[in-house]
Amino acid sequence: TLTSFFLAPDQPFVLTAPGNPSAFYAQFPRVAFSPDTGTFLVTWYVYDNTPGFLIQARTVRVQGGVPVLGPLFLVSTPTASANGGAEGAGAPVIYNPDAKEFVVAWAQTNADAKGPAGIRVQRVSTSGTLIGNPSSTSDGRDVDWPALAYNPKAGEYVLTYGAWGSGAQARAQKFTTGGSPMGGPVVLATGTGVWLPQAIHDPKLDRYLVLASIDGKTTGRLFDVSLQPLAAPFVLREGTIDGVAGYYCPKSSQFFAILQGSSTNDDFAAFVSASGVPGGVFSWTSNQPKLGNFHPRAAFNSKRGEWLAVTSENRTVLVGQRISP
pTM of the prediction? Predict the structure, then answer.
């Protein structure tokens, strides 16, 4: 089963359960929140004795302290083959406060009735209804690790992902808020190994910080809104095993990056200035787990002015750490 929970004193609740217990696998849940409707949208990869990995989702609302679950629905088609086995993959979801709708992305390795293989982008209403058909990148099936950012000033989405059909690259594709591609893919970085690229939008200076694991190093670089570099790349730390995530901190007007290191089993974090200067990298786990701390993520608490970082210790225990900017 795939479960979710609110911090104590609430109890976990089940998001999905297998229809075929002997052939079921759910992984990489992602979540976004609509403050306009008080609705969460949770997405995940699922294999339930199906032809391949599918993208499943459901809405969650909290009424009187009790979670109210919307019906399960497929974001992908029933015949999709999503790239659900890759480390660090997922079906990222973000909320657009201007259009008041969610957007989901995933890597799909096959063509189906709704389009070719590539990175798919699908709009979803706050009631859990698909809006129109998905759009797709033009790179073919050799792509993975999608991440989404929304630029409210330009009214556009920036999708970042890894591609290896013409050598290892970090690429980006812009989409309108209606889901239409804007031009073609843009190459952000190249190397012998490129993983997990993602763009974080700075709403004050209207620019992006792009993070990625490139040739064994977790790197960052500033780009303008046309996705042209503004400065030289910098190194945060060693490359990440399966998790790097970046955010914008509204309190300090800087970026926040967390990652799982490849040479140790600890998770690390760093703040990066708006001008692209990284601060000191620090470990926020230091628990020396046997297997590692996997898939670190964070969320900013605007009332307390601090971050909550979470990670999976040894794939058995959820660990959280408060971090001050």
Answer: 0.92
